[in-house]
Batch of 3 targets.
Target 1
Amino acid sequence: MVGEHTKLPTYTHVPAQPKSRRLSRGLRVVLAITFSLVAFQYVRLYSEVTRPSRESTQVPLRAAEWLDKCQLLDVKPGPPEDFNTRTQSDRFVPGTRPTLIANATIWTGRIDGLEVLQGDILLDGGLIKRVGVVDGDLLDQYAHLIRVDAQGQWVSPGIIDLHSHLGVDSVPELRGGDDTNSFKGPVLPWLRALDGLNTRDDAYKLSIAGGLTTALVLPGSANAIGGQAILIKLRPTADRAPTGKLLENPYERNDSVYDPHAYFRYRHMKYACGENPDRVYSNTRMDTAWAFRKAYEHARKIKEAQDNFCAKATRGDWAGLGDYPEDLQWEALVDVLRGRVKVHTHCYETVDLDDLVRISNEFQFPIAAFHHAHETYLVPDVLKCAYGHPPAVALFATQARYKREAYRGSEFAPRILAEHGLQVVMKSDHPVLNSRYLVYEAQQAHYYGLPHNLALAAVTTTPAKVLGQDHRIGYVKEGYDADLVLWDSHPLALGATPQQVWIDGIAQLASPHLLSKPASFQKVPQTPDFDKEAKETLKYDGLPPLEPVRSKSNTVVFTNVSSVFLREEYTVREAFAADSSNALAAGVAVVRDGQLMCVESGISACAQSIHGDEDAEFVDLEGGSIAPGLVSTGAPLGLQEIDQEASTQDGYVFDALTEGVPEIVGGSGALIRAADGLQFATRDALLAYRAGVTSGIVAPQTRGFLAGLNTAFSTGARHKLEKGALVQEIGGVHVAIHPVGSPSVSTQIAALRHLLLSETNGDIKQWFGKIKQGEVPLAVEANSADIIASVLTLKAEVESKLHTSLKLTIIGGSEAHLLAQELGAANVGVILNPARPFPNDWEERRIIAGPPLTEKNAVLTLAENGVTVGLGIKEVWDARNARFDLAWAALESNGALSKADALALASVNLEKLLGVKADSVRGDLVVTRGGDLLEFSKVVAIISPRRRVVDLL
């Protein structure tokens, strides 16, 4: 039953062993060698003295080597005790000048009362030398000091990504650079991500521009045990080689053998359970669990053989002992059992979490972290039963429901897990999420209730601890690596952008383009109260009801309104702004039967509007706002519930260029209508509605050229026949042009030319006839500037021959900024998708990155050239975040875009570009509390003139 407590299974909890005291690196090397030589001589003499001559045993020639290995078997990884007294980093680049970052607000990551400091940071030798007050006498010692005035702005440790495929899942994605997964078997602990790391990936500089300094690069999740991960610094190195990027090289410098001498460095290994390895190898969860147990049983036998061998060898009992038992393929898994490898497990559902916890206890190895881990917040006590210590949990902020395992994912997971005392990490899974914006994941986690110190720690100090590297990264402390970020606002403020990034004391941004942010952005953002929603999430086992509650009164009065934005045709304007200097002049908005009747300062001004409504419902917005409902487009919102489950979605249309379209559908003249495949009340649609996205415009899904006819629908409707559910049945025609090889781009352009200039039949004839007459828009999905140029040329050709004017919209547009002037001159609009571009594919490689790498972003570049711009989404789960994309675009414009302009990017502009008729009277309005729609406010109501109601959320 929902809400009932289920008794958890009992596990054996074995506490972690305390760390042994460690000697300095040089001394340990000397002692190890001395021990081996003494042991060898002792064993040789012992054998000669104690054994009868007739039974004397010859000491093996490799005895010293084997005794050395025995001596090191139980040594645990970690730095020597004097590590932080080092005067120079092992990664120091000779010639690097010392740097003073002065007048900074410093988030140190410490919890000893020094979490935030005002002062300076001195960098030298690749290390942080001083934090706080740096006296002049010390500075006088530096003749070539670089001085940076932070002007009171925030400095944090460098951002650390605990889950990345940077450099192995290469960007742009090409077949020749895909080294993420091996498909040679479910258990492959001997593989190493280092062997596939591409040091020329286009994403390094982008991620650095977002403050990322360190990343754990993991193999993919096709295998139960996919191989060994590597921990890298992102900065380019003089050797240009993968080995040079390693934070701490666990191997001999010019060899590939694991080097246990000096001090041990943790290694890392990638596991996966559940759907991914099951699907790849046609297994079930039972098969994958057995693959784990079989592998560990093999490793356990090797470990026991080594322990038995060493027990006899150290006694000098060489008789019949044979060679030291080892296996190069399995040595890393044996080291997992010795606690010298950090285990990172891709694991979503309760059943898989429970499986791995039991296996960890059966074979007695700790799990460093569960990754993705969407259901961990539902079973925190299961995690606490893992061997040694509870695993950390590495999460997305809002990405969920893209497959069955992620269906119960919750935005409240970080706060719930933290409340249970578990370590929370926010991660990217780059390039699934662009790791340039990893700090955005922390911002969202904070927005939904994770305390600010834990949210920032989730991308700095906490991953450093999980990685076993909190002795050198993750903090702003003396003796630590000089990996720092100077931000233009508080790191948890929406749109926070680095002004400079240092890795190993080296500034990474040449001539960064800086943004001016309001003073309020220098403070920890105020976030809404989501206590009720978090409790509901647990009550309903991760699937709380999302349907809105309709106001019981016909009249709703919103008080303490700070601003009101309204739409007029295809524009948005600010219709009301309260006088912030006069608390008594706060705005009041009266809504009756879903119509906004009055917006004025003070309740008395709107008294006439509520006269006689004794049952009027009053809602205090606490400085909130009213704005037009937003629109989602680009992803199949409304056509699917779970992306990777075919039974939950509309599916894909026939592609007339590559396959025959059945006559029963309409043959070659068929145009599919998205309206026919709509699904209402999906969780992503309802979550979008609750976040102010009140309608969606969606086209049929295609993997080829011709998609079909789009439709506009209400995201809050329960079914298609409900009043107002279908906003507009058909708006425009969609096609897609991609350089995928077959058919060629030129073939696709030729097909489009034929549809526009030649005789056709069926629905194609009807709707392309409307396109030719300029009545409906043609939406062309294209990213490459070359393809866009060909489309513009075709548009001019058609208009010249038909003496008409076409309505043309480009969707995608990653390289559209290169043709900004031409697009403006041709009156062609662009829907940027994604809103913040990323060179994921070859056709998207020439993006304009935006600040701090470029002065302007794509939105501003296009808008300044007269192009109507809209913002789309790639994934349905991301529809709820449209408001934050708008805010980011406005902030990156450095004041060139007003809030009204930003709101238009995902409302009236999208409707105009996709053929949805303007309806200023019936358009939905979104009501927020504690700020406007572009801030970290909370959506509390939807005003729907179309349905004549107010939904309370």
Target 2
Amino acid sequence: MSVMGVQAAADPEPGAQDPHTGEPQPSPRRPAQTTRPLVNENDEKPPPLPQPRRIVPRVQLLVSNRGCSARVVTVSPGPLIRVEGQPVSIRCDVNEYSGPREQDFEWMTSREASGARMKIISTFDASYSHSSLSKRVASGDISVVRLEDNEVELKIAEAKALDAGLYWCQTPSTDSVISGNYEAQVQLIVIPNTLSVSPQTPPQEAAEGSDLTLSCNVTRALTQPTFLSVTWSLKSGATSEEILTLGPQGGVATGAKFARRYADGGIRLVPGKNGLFELVISRVTTSDGGTYECNGTEWTHENGGKWIKIVENTKEMGTVKVIPTGQSLAVRATSSASPSSTSLLLSPSDALTLLCSVTADNLQALALEVTWLAGDRDIVTMERSGIVISNTSSSLERTGAGEYRLGVRGVSAEDGGDYTCRVRAFIDKGGKSAGGGGRWHMAAEKRSGPVTVKVSQIMPSYTLTLEPALNPQMTAEPTELACHVTNVTHLPPGGRLGVTWEHTSLPGEAPQTSHHIGSLDGSGNLLLGSMYTDRLRSGVMSLTKVQPNTFKLQIIRTQEIDMGQYSCSVSAWSVNSQGDMVKIAEYKSSPMTVRWDPKRPSLNVVAKRVREASVGGATFEMSCTLTTENLGEAGYSVLIQSQESLESNVRTIMTLSPDNVLQHGGATDPNRRDSLVLTKSGPAEFRFRLAGVQLSDRGFYWCDITAWTKQQAGQTWTRATSAESNKVRIDFQENGPSFSIAIQSDDTSVYPSKTAKMECSLSVSGSSPKTDDLAYEVRWFFTRLRGGQTTTQVASVDRFGIVKAEIRNSSSELSVERRDTHTYLLNIFGTHDSDSGEYYCVATPWYLSASTGAWTQAGELMSSRVFLTVQFAVWDSLQLPLLYGASASIGVGLFSLVLGLVCAHCCCRNTTHTPRSRNKLMDLEMD
């Protein structure tokens, strides 16, 4: 690789020859280096050229003075190798000094190692320069620039050969004690500019996908240890981007857009001799077009590891235009039988052969994907890998470079049409050295002109006859239509027949509409119309092929919406070359009208007594027989209803739905539901049975029957008509006991929080049953004195002794007590003002009938009303406030008395004691 060539030029052995000039090379003095590649194979973007850290080594001369710090003057490390005509800069700084912060500097030079010094320039003396240098200083060719208070830079705009020599940087002393060094020197070597860049002009045009070689010759005369680097760049418009850089250490760095291609081998260096460097770009694309440049740079590696660019030269190599593949790509489709014709006529079962020819300037660099299309439908494709994907029985093979042949065996009328060849050209952007990177880029897509293929065929013919097998005369009757196919001719081998049924509303209906019922294709597949999908799937309607030439449409239950005109269309199908069934002909029958005179359905129901209930506890049974007209098949719902008299309210005893779901009505006692039976005893008969009749069951009974129909299975029932039967009466006399009820209270006026008691007493007369054969259901009701006249139930006890107290908005509590068989007591504990109002009780006696042995319910009894008053107790309400007030008054009085005594004792006591005189009279006078 060229990396070796650059290293040989950059690091010659002693006595070796320059690979570019052939002259002996001196042995360079430079520190040992480790060369590392600038391109990481695992990175998408390689790192830039390595730049050493900005560390300026110093040449220091230190003079020790009794261990104290001393002035230190340093300059750029040398020797400094620069090229004639190029700028030169030498830095100088001073540290560890005393005096003012800003220091002055003086520069001197000596052209010979032992020669006298010559003044160059000073920061404080404008007349400091030697006469031989004053003009260059005045013109600015030589100048000094202050960088910091303690740092300056000597600059030479264009170095000359006579500028080579030793340079001194001095600083005048500002220290109180002279110590350290006040000057430092460095050697400047000026070499002639021998860098030569000679690029070879690349071709002006390159086909997309071809390789492009960029050759550039970079040399220089090696008089000092310098190094070379070569850079190729691509300029497109006003922007320029580096492609690849080789050197100066022998490493390689690539531009961001070219890193992936270099890693894949799409960009590679080719070794050369005598300073020739070649860069090869494989499989160029249109983005590679532009102006290419070659740059040669000469470097020096100074002490401290810093790389310095001393001279560079850039030359334009030339402009390259990449010709897109689409400009040269051409696709042509022809017939092998007639290459010059774009139309082809075939007979059924013939073979079809078409050729696709592809040409391009860079055909060998392209990977082609070839597809044959019939109209807009892909029939077969050969991928760029050579794999063939076919949607039909056709074949595709590659017969030569850019030649592809399509073969179709046994064509039919379906295979007629326009055939075109579509070609997609791909370029692998991976390099040759990588064996192809697999990063494919579609360069162009072209489609050939069409080749028209016609397949001659004699159309089949036949005759259609539509006949009614079953013609409905009324709603819900079946309908059956038969479509016969006769006189079939020219049906191709393997051909089949299909049918399509349509329904049109009767003429005169506005608007008259047509709907697709369903069809059977050549393969026997059933295709459903949107309006008839549910009926066909449920089996209410069916489309069948009963014979090879006979098709039938059946409707199990014809509805009024089915009246109209029906027609059948029979189609002929054949098998094409791809094995698919295709329609080649279709004929439609004459319409046939299906209609009838719709009549309103009617229903008649007759109820009769099957078993008479003459005494209590007997069984009553009634049958309801129905007759229909113009109804057909239907379902029935039955309601058993009753009323005590012809003027009383109607009660629903039981119901039976069309789906035979039995339910009890709201008027049915839950405890007697086992005694009620309702069944369907025949196709048109229903029976109702009531076991153990009681006095409360007396009244009129009848059936209310409704007829329901369904258009198809799975749908909801639709009401057709309904009717009520005659009424059958249950009437019997029961000479049972008679009952009476009374209510009384021990006290109708109570104080709050007291207990009120109310007694509900029942008595029996006549044929009195035994105690064990008698039970009562007792309920208490209450009408509030304040807050409205609403009557609410407050408590109850059933005939089995179960007590239930209702939830009330009161703080009082209720309890029910049974004192004996005929006496029930209601207790109200902790009465409240809200308990004032009217109370009464309601009782329902039950007794065991001696004649039937069944429990019989007697009539309901209601007592008179008792008014309860909860009085407001004035004295009771004042007791506590008076007690609290008296207690508070006594407490305050005692507290005031104690407080007065304490104050008098503490405040009025004489602190000086005077003994009483013995002379009482004198004391009295003094008083």
Target 3
Amino acid sequence: MPGLLRKIVIFAAVDGLILQSAGNGLRYNGNGDSSSIRIDYKTNRISSLPGPASDLSERKDFAGLETYGLVGLLTVASYSFLITITQRQQVAQIQGKPIYSIANVAVIPTSSHEDASRAIVQAKENILQGEECDDTDTPSEDTDISDAETDGSDAEDINTAPASPVQGSCHPRNDSISSNITENMIGKKLRFGRFAANWLSRKAMGLPGLSTAELETVEAESGSIPMVEFKEENPVAARSASAANTEELPASASDGESSKGSELEPPVDTKPIELLPKLLRYTKLIFSSRNFFFSYDYDLTRPVSAQPTAMALNGRLSLHKAADELYFWNQHLMLPFITAGTHPFVLPLVQGFVGQSEFTVAAKSGPSSETEPSEARILGEKQEAEDVQTAGEKRNFLLTLISRRSVKRPGLRYLRRGVDDDGNTANTVETEQILSVPDWDSSHNIYSYLQLRGSIPLYFSQSPYSFKPVPVLHHSPETNRFAFERHFRTISRRYGKIQAVSLIDKRNPELKIGEQYEKYAQELNQSGGIDGVPLGFEWFDFHNECRGMKFENVSRLVGRLKNTLSEFKSIVVNNGTVLQKQTGIVRTNCMDCLDRTGVAQCAFGQWALERELKEEGIDIDLGGDSSTRWFNILWADNGDAISKQYSSTAALKGDYTRTRKRDYRGALNDFGLTLSRYYNNIVNDYFSQACVDYLLGNVSTQVFQEFATELQSADPGISVQKLRQNAIDTSCRLVVSDQSEEFLGGWTLLTPHQPNTLRTLPFEESVLLLTDAAVYSCRFDWNTDKVLSFERIDLRSITRINYGTYITSTLTDAQSDEQRNFGLVIEFREGDNNALRVNTRSLQSEVDPKALDNQWDMSAWFTSSQRNKTRIMAFKALPLSNSVTQTQRRKSATVSETDWVQNICEEIEHAMKAGQRTTANAESRPFVVEPAEIISLAEAKKRTGLLEHLVHDIKKMVWA
């Protein structure tokens, strides 16, 4: 595409980082956007450089680094880092356009000239170290790819050498860029802590998708001509993960001084982020994991039938503007460049998988077995293809597999499950299988088949601390129904008809959630379906149907859905015209949407490929032909990639997907992967999830403060405010039984685990209700949206209300903040008008069953001897602002915890005074609402024992 820079050189100038097109000076795209910009060190503002600037590559006073493109600008508090692509690997070519995976990135701080120069020099040294491992000489291209023609001939030939020296098989893991930067930050005495320093010394993290799935080379059997033979001489077909296909940008003679012994100066007046070193390391590792793909000319975010036209790209439309935001992974990191209008620098990335295999088939004698050729075949075939093919005639094809991970509800296995408030599901991946001829001749049909995977569209969770975790359903039926229907209506607008396939067990622990899934599907159809079209639902008990490791029995599922699959069809494109559309999609899920889903999707893909080849006059059984192992390997590599991105390990059952065989070795390998997943679930995934949410712009910088305190982060897809308001409404409806009472207000606060105490851990989130007659403290089950118990305190029994500092722990700075840790204590006399009741439907009553009063049990009426006793009820304010709300309300001011608690106290005081005025002949009782420390910082330090410090330090050492 004109204007999209294939290669960018980055210079550390005195007044800012300068980015300009590499080779043949500066160029401009169709919109007049300059391909030379500056990032100011002080403000991080991106501005275009006017006019044709001089080539800075010859300047000895500038440190320059050539890159293959930008990932984006990462900003954390007042720190910013430019992420650039320094290595790439060509993995496919689609319609003559190269597709690359990112093999390595450099992280360049933009805080000062010295810091940027040092990072650039380090990146160049790392490239040189990689070149020293190359024992072979590889010629470079004669022309710069960015100077090629734009009519389709500008793409690199898949067999030609890339634009820079090709590296050999020796690729040392170079993490020194981010490691050196962050270690220097620690050296400047910023408060990152000893655990952050300890973390930096670790060599491996086990983070998701950080090891490349090596793609196996399949050799054709000698001595016979198989029905399908694998063409090894084509590097795309072989799809080897050898580093011979990995490109590293050449490092010119280094300009600038060595970075050894120097320190990174932080910006002035900045507040350091405790986990910044770990975030930078994770950012480098995740983008170097070979799980991100890009193309300069092809839109990987859209199917082959929805590609932007050449006229649109040559006109006003930039590639990133045509990209589908659902799969545009680095859009948030690219926002500074998009806002500045520097469109040539905006390179969309897709997370997922891209693989390709060329194969040869021998057509059988006679015409196609179809009695009536399809409409697409009649319109799309060339005249010579209509003739009867002779026996043994060979034809070459190319199979391309593209998986796109959605940026909605992203994250890792047990931390992102089910659906969110917008109907997005976890681990949503669109997979496209494309069949074409190797040279992508537009006169030949191009077939595209789409599939979808995604978590069960209900609110549920599973504990990461169990090998066989039990799914726990959350929220009310109405809340689940709304999200369920919203999810499928969104899919229907995108794909048409839907066939849902559930592969979970019809026995515990998966039975309950499977039954709920089926129930909501039936209710949706009973209410009219999706715009009058019923939702297809098929429950295939995978483990039962395929017991004994007979995974080939998944063909039974394909057989059940054969009519539906035929109805949905595939996409057929010829000469740029869509001859046939896919009218529906199969949406497959198991519990994780990984292993069982991968086997089933491979079977559906096999069915589609056989049908498409039959359209071409070739009748073949891919499952029964041993020479079609290339197909299994391609799908197995796809499954491994998606599994690593979601669960940190390769997919289970991968041996069957590759070989169509299952034995004890595969079972033992799966057991080892299960153990690895278990470790990552309870150790690495928590911080990784916070990083993913931050890189996608779903949370603010505060997510790292929250993680340092709680060792977990909020779910941006779930509205906590909505859940809390629902809890208040539910509690009010159930516990305020007297219709004469007027509801005045409700709040959610933290309260000690044991009543009548100030500091009984753990603190629980409860609901406080206020009417004109009483105060209600309700303990709420947030999983089932039910009130477990409540205590009613008559306003006339309240003798004192104190509000002030309420610190329960001093383990972190956030927990020791006297302004944010604020609460109130209500002191009251026990009497006849006060009551404690327990919901016997959710919690077994400890009193005489004869005393049960319908749903609620009066567990204790206070006796006359208790009337003179005084009790307390303590409440602590929840954080009113977190990483999610800060992102959603960046410009709106929030009330402080101090003001919020004081407002609650005033509301209670007003209700008490109003009650006194309206009560006839009521005895005037003095009561006091005044500020007073509940637990001061000094007292909290005394109460926080060594054991708590030890436990917290151990947790932080493991998780943070």
